[in-house]
Amino acid sequence: xxxxxxxxxxxxxxxxxxxxxxxxxxxxxxxxxxxxxxxxxxxxxxxxxxxxxxxxxxxxxxxxxxxxxxxxxxxxxxxxxxxxxxxxxxxxxxxxxxxxxxxxxxxxxxxxxxxxxxxxxxxxxxxxxxxxxxxxxxxxxxxxxxxxxxxxxxxxxxxxxxxxxxxxxxxxxxxxxxxxxxxxxxxxxxxxxxxxxxxxxxxxxxxxxxxxxxxxxxxxxxxxxxxxxxxxxxxxxxxxxxxxxxxxxxxxxxxxxxxxxxxxxxxxxxxxxxxxxxxxx
Length: 281
Fold this sequence. Notes:
By secondary structure, this protein is an alpha+beta fold. The protein has five helices and 16 strands. The protein has helices spanning 14-30, 58-68, 91-101, 176-179, 263-271; strands at 4-9, 32-38, 51-56, 75-79, 108-120, 123-130, 133-137, 145-151, 158-162, 164-168, 191-197, 207-210, 215-221, 227-230, 234-237, 243-256. The mean pLDDT is 93.
């Protein structure tokens, strides 16, 4: 039986549309294309597929991964954006490795997800999934906020005053968290990174906790616009007295690996990790 492939592309961007046009016949030669959909197009609830091919930048791949996580199917990311750190394939690599990608046992990368909840008066009011990070951000009018952070059974916890805090997966450790001074965590490490945003303390350093632990933030002082932002895309409103909880999701994202790619090569080439200074000749 042929592999059934779902193809999703960000048709709002010309480069993604062109890349999708080039990728579709490659996919069709190795799998049965059950549907070609735009990124914002609703999908039938009873649709069945074996693999999803996502064409776009990392943002498209992240948003579609959140949408498809309940299906538990592997995802092939084809880069049509600027960076392509998560979307490992280009059209040439897809064609080169198509028999393996759409075969019985494609090479897989399993990536940890975060489950995030906003609890108010003992009831979960909003919840969501994050591939990269969940950011508790001060929001307008951009005054400092105060939150009390605790991990699992730590009754004392710590106070954080500042512009917010980033809770990142290993996959997201190279994104906003890294820009805020957090560590780079290899995707195979089971950990959750907590990085403060401009904390009013020289002593609050980023910390990596176990993936089995739950990190909670009690919202002591907030702004009108204070919220939790998932992957820079979805907003969960947070009010004074709320508790924001983040822990490992019971599902993982499954990405098909590009056999031509190595993590450290991508880190050096795309993120310029450990690049030396530019000396004069």
